[in-house]
Design a protein that fits this description.
There is one protein chain. This protein has 12 helices and 13 strands. The protein is an alpha/beta fold. The chain has an 8-stranded parallel β-barrel, surrounded by 4 helices. A hairpin with a 2-residue loop joins strand 1 and strand 2. The protein is globular and about 60 Å long. The two termini are 43 Å apart.
Length: 465
């Protein structure tokens, strides 16, 4: 996606420099205007407090995750607020996390915070345009500040800049552009208190799992992220996400080959995008014991985060339910529960809220499994519908794959445009004065319930080893 990036903005002054200058001005004013001492002292205190806010320290502790030294379970959601009428290949290239679009992300973040979401994962970033100078957080600062919320129920952020596996494998100038992009993003944001870490690629390999050159080049990208953070005095938390192509013979080829390459010493955790039904595979096919066995075979200990889990809220009308078709679609929330189940028109369907609750129960069970724990939470896919993923930016359609997949999804279909906990809204409402308004589905209400049953950090969900 680096080919989409516009020319970078002029470098901004660092926040540290700004605070230093502001303090100097306050001190000079104090010398001239003793009568204002109380007011100026308050200003100095505020500036000192701002400068003393520390970046989040995110670390792996065995298979657990800690934030600022406290046990932490990711009660996350994936956030890609691409509106109706555009695709990420259109400006602003998926990066809506700047001041211009605060009428989008402010109400979204408010609803997430209400539902006790504690971390979000982004799918886009435009560092060439938005990163700014080291330490400034660039054009993302207002968004990150709002996520942090002065430390009150903060929503942490996993940041990302787009990559493709084939481009990484090819190396050369294109790989160097990825390194340049991540270098700018990390240096700009690593010390912001809302930043959880960095996702270096989503479903990264693009069929390159068995290519040693890919892993050498990918390792150089991960190392660049690590080095960029250290240059700012911070060791960043680095992860990546892979597709769930596990088999008993090959396991997850990306994890096996990546770790065996020796190039991933600075990768702190793995994310797997898992779509195995409401029990995440269930007995004999559960992702967690499989991951533990793979880590044991490799002699590694890295926390597992489910990079994506969830279901579309869409299905088909009763007349064609169960057939391999893309239309006509129906919102599963509008189907009565008594019409679902064996012998009923929607014979393999279950309510979306029940589906997501079952998945979270499976995650929470492993988090609390003591010696068998490998999972540290995950990210529901996703926050809002994305029409473009159904190959029609203007209309919500089924597919693009028409296949009926039974119990793998709540409505039986993997509709790319229908995974949202909330509705998409039209592009014309973005960047305006009025906040956008979304419709919230039963999946959101279920998330609000099950995330809300634990503390903000969720650390108590871990069991005793």
């Amino acid at each position: 996606m680096s080919s989409w990036y516009q020319e970078g903005l002029a470098a901004k002054k660092s926040l540290t420099s700004g605070i230093h200058n502001a303090k100097g001005s306050v001190m000079k004013a104090t010398a001239f205007y003793q009568g204002w001492a109380g007011t100026l002292s308050t200003a100095i205190l505020a500036l000192t407090t701002l400068s003393s806010v520390q970046a989040a320290t995110v670390t792996a502790d065995g298979f657990k995750v800690k934030v600022n030294g406290a046990l932490y379970v990711a009660k996350g959601v994936n956030y890609s607020p691409v509106p109706i009428g555009v695709a990420p290949s259109d400006q602003p290239y998926g990066d809506y996390f700047v001041k211009l679009y605060d009428n989008v992300w402010k109400p979204d973040l408010d609803k997430m915070r209400t539902a006790d979401v504690n971390v979000i994962k982004l799918y886009a970033g435009n560092p060439a345009l938005n990163a700014g100078a080291p330490g400034t957080s660039g054009n993302w600062k207002q968004f990150l500040d709002y996520c942090y919320n002065n430390g009150k129920n903060p929503i942490y952020v996993v940041m990302m800049s787009y990559t493709q596996g084939g481009v990484i494998a090819g190396g050369g100038a294109a790989l160097q552009q990825y390194i340049t992009d991540y270098n700018a993003m990390v240096k700009s944001t690593v010390n912001h208190p809302a930043v959880f870490g960095y996702l270096v690629g989503n479903e990264i390999t693009g069929g390159q799992e068995s290519n040693p050159t890919f892993w050498t080049n990918y390792g150089s990208l991960v190392d660049a992220v690590h080095t960029a953070g250290l240059s700012q005095g911070k060791d960043p938390f680095i992860s990546t996400a892979i597709v769930d192509n596990y088999t008993p013979v090959d396991n997850w080829p990306a994890i096996t080959n990546g770790e065996n390459s020796g190039a991933l010493t600075n990768l702190d955790s793995w994310m797997i995008n898992v779509y195995r039904g409401p029990e995440l595979g269930g007995t004999g096919n559960l992702v967690f014991p499989q991951y533990k066995q793979v880590m044991s075979d490799l002699g590694k200990v890295k926390p597992l985060l489910l990079g994506e889990w969830g279901t579309p809220h869409t299905t088909r009308t009763a007349a064609v339910y169960g057939q391999n078709v893309t239309t006509p679609i129906r919102n599963l929330d509008d189907v009565r529960k008594k019409q679902m189940g064996q012998g009923q028109p929607y014979f393999a369907a279950i309510p979306v809220g029940d589906f997501l609750t079952s998945e979270w129960t499976a995650i929470k069970t492993n988090v609390g499994a003591g010696a068998d724990q490998v999972c540290a939470g995950g990210f529901i896919f996703g926050w809002c519908d994305e029409y473009w993923k159904g190959n029609n930016v203007n209309v919500q359609v089924g597919g693009p794959a028409p296949n009926f997949q039974g119990g793998a999804f709540a409505g039986g279909y993997a509709d790319e445009a229908g995974y949202g906990l909330s509705s998409a809204v039209k592009n014309a409402s973005y960047g305006k004065t009025l906040p956008i308004t979304r419709t919230f589905f039963d999946g959101y209400r279920a998330m609000n319930d099950f995330y809300g049953k634990s503390s903000q950090n969720g650390g108590e969900l871990y069991g005793t080893p």
